[in-house]
User: Fold these one by one.
Assistant:
Number 1:
Amino acid sequence: MVARQGNRLATTGCLISLTALIAILGIVASWLWYRHWHDDNINSERQKKETVALLEQARAISDDTARALDTSQATDVDTLTGVIWQHSTTPVISYSATRHEFTAIAARPAQYDEEGILPGTGAGQLTRCFVFTYTHRPGPAWTPRVSVQDDDQCRPSTQIAGRVHMALTRISSMNTKDLTRAGIQNGLDPTGRRSFDV
């Protein structure tokens, strides 16, 4: 009789413990799901905000560059390319003589505070590929246009920008007496395995 009551109490205690454990796990799972959903929404909003800011920045760069082209009154392609590079810092700039149009391509990054379950999750990063077009029709003014393209469109531009940054870093650390054509060639490509031409 006493053993039967002990078994009943043990069984009841186990059921209560198991029910409490399931309830606690359910609450934890629900909280984790909610946090994941909440954090995704916040991060999505922050990404949208940064994307809008990047587009506004790209339009401002485009307008400033067009104004600089207007005031430069230059006609040769090299000078105009220099004006575009100086104002937009795009590593790839091409010119179409038939359309009287320059095209400059560059990826622009932005960072935002990423929300996460763990404290100090860190910064999220997004990149947008912009194509800047400057067309000169009859008359004094240049017409700017900005479009957002797929990341693949910016891949060559990003690779060139990386190589330019690496070259500038290496050249800036060189001794002034080595700043000759052969010295810079050796500084950029000391092993002779890569195809850097000065």
Number 2:
Amino acid sequence: MEKEQVVFLANGIEQSNLTLFDIKKLDTTVKNFLPGFQKGKEAIAGFEITKRDNHVSYLFAFIHTGDNYYLVIYSPNKKALAELKNIDMVDGNPYIIWKYNPAKRDGKNQDRKDYFTKNFGPAIRQILIPKSSSDIETFIGELFALCQNRLEADHLGEETN
């Protein structure tokens, strides 16, 4: 992602008045690190975002190393669920590209991929980067769905949060 895109998204989340989600800004250290997250990667911002209707929360960390800027979404126990950094332009609009690619060492990864595509569609997702703050809630909703789908496929259909 470009630095401007990351800054826009972080500012948009922080300043949004959302109806479906509660947002809590995470504190950074003096040197702009998020305590307990990826070491050596400076934070632009971090948020705990909770969906009001089911109380599911994810941690959104906007981080960078050098010129590499990206969003990492974590579970509440700080397990990385999605690292979003690849951007493609589609019809002049920037989309984050994410691919479901399970890498567990139990021999069931193809089953997970099959479950994902059968139940949620293509393993490669394109998520439109919002152009205005009014699109932030839709963007967050899509990221929540992506994480929920990933977790469900990772557990081959078991109930997950």
Number 3:
Amino acid sequence: MKLRAELTGLPQREQARRLATVAAALVAHIERIEPDASEARAALAAIRIGSGDGRLTGRYFSDLIYSDDERGTLRRLSEAVGKPSEDGWNALTTAAIYVAGLVYQETGDPMPNDVNEVGEDSLDLLEEQLPKLG
């Protein structure tokens, strides 16, 4: 599967819908390993809302990833380094960042630097990460 080729020609909401399916599988993978995966479930819920008719701000997505209170998928990824859940957190964070970029583009809000650097090459990174999950 070539994720970039599959997604980039689609409207933003459809891209997010397809990534919600990927994110659901990633969350299931993480939950099999870690009983407390609340950040993963929150990221999935936001991706699902962002892929539907719901409106979330890019800031909301960014907070799920880079939380000011030291929560978020990036913190969980840093805690999972060297553990079986690391690849799941990495892939989920990549998917959430990509969807955050879509939301920022849709709303026209200025993107934070970390999200602004996200592009279609993130889909290539995500595609590289997925086989590591089995």
Number 4:
Amino acid sequence: MNRVVEAIKDNPEVFAAVVAFIGIGGGILGNFIGARIQLRGGRAQADAARDAARITAEAQRLAALRDDRRREIAHFVQKARETVSYAETLYRQEDHEGAHQAAVRTAHMELSRKQAELELIAPADLVALAHQVVTAVEKRMDLADDRAPAERVRHRLEAIPVMSPEHVWAQQALRALDDARVANLARDKNGYVAFRSAARTALEELPHMCDDERRLLLDDTYRFHLRERRRDQEESLNVALGELVTAARRLLKSEDADQ
């Protein structure tokens, strides 16, 4: 190797050719290395751009999903409250009863549709909480459908003016009806029969009442006190709605937005 080097050094023409070759080879190698670096850099930039696009698309998808969930949950809660509100009108409004019942059914159908939409877009735990809300709403609907007719007649008795000649009989009927209910719950058969008979006598002194209305009031004494049951169901629904709203706020990170 040393002899070759010495020979090259002693021959200027050969030395010049070798130097030129090394220069050309180095240039080619440098160009090759530079091209490889540029290629890798281009690939890295392309990969980074794809990653950025993928991250952006995922962020947009999550934002859209969050907006959809917020909207559907809000609509579901609104429809649950609306359905109950329609059911509550059955206790108060005697006119156009069929129209009010139709409104309750329509609202309930819309609530069921909103529940189905939540089942497609919400997490399983939120779907379960929505089911509890629907169950609570349906219990209030069933109670109103069952007990509202008698309650409306009772409201009419309670609304009889003090100066009316029928006021005394109305009050006696109301007291006897309440006593009959208490006796029935206490399984006091004799007491129940006596109070029911007293209620019937007082109701017959009210000429504006028909036989069907009297029968509604008397048969209602077999049931639990309506106003206590309504209060319990209202509390159950409020609890179910509260749990749903709390879970929804946690899912939507509403607390973070408040900060």
